[in-house]
Amino acid sequence: MKFSVTVTLKKDVLDPQGKVVKNTLVNMGMNNLKSIRQGKHFEVEVEGNDQSIAEEKVDEMCKKLLVNLIIEDYKINKI
Amino acid sequence: MKFSVTVTLKKDVLDPQGKVVKNTLVNMGMNNLKSIRQGKHFEVEVEGNDQSIAEEKVDEMCKKLLVNLIIEDYKINKI
Which domains, and CATH codes, for chain B? Predict the structure, then answer.
């Protein structure tokens, strides 16, 4: 069973990496770019046929390792 | 207009970072984890009301800077 996990910085957390990317794109002539924020993306495959149990497992992985809950939000989707 | 861009390594490209994450999770007791691959995620906001023009701009950004087309795939979604 496959899930995608998207990890993004919380709204009020500064994103220096995204800022550098934005400045670079603007310098390359992309004038209509308003903002860009960078996050992480995981494709997780777990064994088992029960979707809710599998999703719980992925949620546990997020909380224990993949996501820093103080500064990041995350979203799990079945794919 | 907001778009999400998901950048993933192509299927046949090794993902050492994902491998480290996988090993760590298995060592933490997640035995039913089959595979995990890491990618990047961008939230891009561009000006303008025409979706197709905006999407083209985002696509140009991907090709010129955000994505290494030799080893990475990308997907653009309107959010």
Answer: 2-78 (3.30.1280.10)
The percent of residues above 90 in pLDDT, for chain A, comes to 94
- Beta carbons of A44 and B38 less than 8 Å apart: no
Query: CB of A43 within 8 A of CB of B39?
Result: yes
Q: Is A64 on the interface with B (CB under 8 A)?
A: yes
CB contact under 8 A, B46 and A25: no
pLDDT digits (tens, 9 = 90+) for B1-27: 999 999 999 999 999 999 999 999 999
- Give the ipTM of the model, two decimals please: 0.88
Is A41's Cβ below 8 Å from some Cβ in B? yes
Query: Of how many residues is chain A composed?
Result: 79
**3-state percent helix, strand, coil for chain A, nearest multiple of 5:** 35, 35, 30
